């Protein structure tokens, strides 16, 4: 396992470098522009250069929820970065002197920007062929982060909501425009399913809605319906590689 440090400005310091002979993963320490340190797991495919997917977890959860997806993406030739959002897992919190609260979800957009900076610093990755996958609050965050970033070519949204603690994605998805988005919700999760259907119906472009039978929310659906992992990998292969 190697460790790397990156800044939002794109500078990278490799603390332990080893030749990559096979698909692997390592822990990286990233820095958001407001100084918050973020823990991330980077999944690297054997063959590079390669496109990449940023994986955003649910509120109160952590990047480990995406381990199976990150591993499968790398096996399929797509890099992945699963990040602990500020205040979660191994990441620091928003400085209270900046926002008055460590719970300010709007500033998590800076966390996504830090991952984007890390990807741009990697010459072995296609920084203009990026996907975003998010679960629950992470799904809304993915839409907000992608709306004006044209290097984001594809979205996969697990249990999105029309309003999760002030993160409202509907207008942002319209700005995202004709780029493709996959929306997934459980038949037994009424709010997420209603939100996913409304988001899928609005705006131009491919909006692929998948409804699963298992009663689960966000990344919990990956455990209840393991075939969904393959569906996510296939989605990004079709929208980032093809």
In words, what does this structure look like?
With 242 residues, this protein is α/β, with parallel strands linked by helices. It has a single domain (3-241), classed as 3-Layer(aba) Sandwich (Rossmann fold), CATH 3.40.50. The chain is 31% helix and 27% strand. Strands 2-1-3-4-6-5-7-8-9-10 form a ten-stranded mixed β-sheet, sandwiched between helices. Helix 4 links the parallel strand 7 and strand 8 (152-158). Helix 1 (67-75) crosses helix 8 (227-241) and helix 3 crosses helix 4. It starts with a strand and ends with a helix. Mean pLDDT is 88; it is low at 1-21.
Which of globular, elongated, flat, extended, rod-shaped describes the shape?
globular
For CATH, the homologous superfamily is named as Alpha/Beta hydrolase fold, catalytic domain
Report the total helices.
8
Number of domains: 1
Number of strands: 10
Fraction of helical residues: 25-40%
Task: Report how far the terminal alpha carbons are from each other.
Answer: 31 Å
Which band does the percent of strand residues land in?
25-35%
- What is the second-level CATH architecture? 3-Layer(aba) Sandwich
Radius of gyration: 17 Å
Report the average pLDDT across residues.
Answer: 88
Would you kindly provide a brief summary of this structure?
By secondary structure, the protein is α/β, with parallel strands linked by helices.
């Amino acid at each position: 396992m190697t460790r790397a440090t990156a800044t939002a400005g794109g500078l990278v310091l490799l603390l332990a470098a080893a030749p990559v002979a096979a698909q692997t993963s390592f822990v990286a320490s990233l820095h958001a522009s407001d100084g918050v340190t973020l823990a991330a797991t980077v999944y690297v495919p054997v063959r590079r250069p390669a496109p990449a997917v940023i994986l955003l977890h649910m509120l109160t959860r952590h990047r480990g929820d995406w381990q199976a997806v990150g591993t499968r993406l790398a096996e399929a030739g797509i890099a992945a970065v699963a990040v602990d959002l500020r205040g979660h897992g191994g990441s620091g919190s928003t400085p209270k002197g900046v926002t008055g609260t460590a719970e300010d979800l709007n500033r998590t957009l800076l966390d996504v920007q830090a991952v984007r900076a890390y990807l741009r610093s990697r010459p072995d990755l296609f920084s203009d062929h990026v996907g975003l996958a998010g679960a629950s609050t992470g799904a809304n965050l993915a839409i907000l982060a992608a709306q004006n970033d044209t290097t984001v070519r594809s979205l996969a949204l697990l249990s999105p909501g029309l309003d999760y603690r002030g993160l409202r994605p509907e207008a942002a998805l319209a700005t995202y425009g004709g780029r493709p988005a996959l929306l997934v919700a459980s038949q037994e999760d009424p709010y997420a399913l209603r939100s996913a259907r409304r988001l899928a119906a609005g705006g131009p472009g491919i909006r692929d809605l998948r409804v699963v039978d298992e009663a689960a929310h966000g990344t919990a659906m990956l455990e209840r319906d393991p075939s969904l992992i393959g569906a996510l990998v296939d989605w990004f292969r079709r929208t980032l590689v093809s």
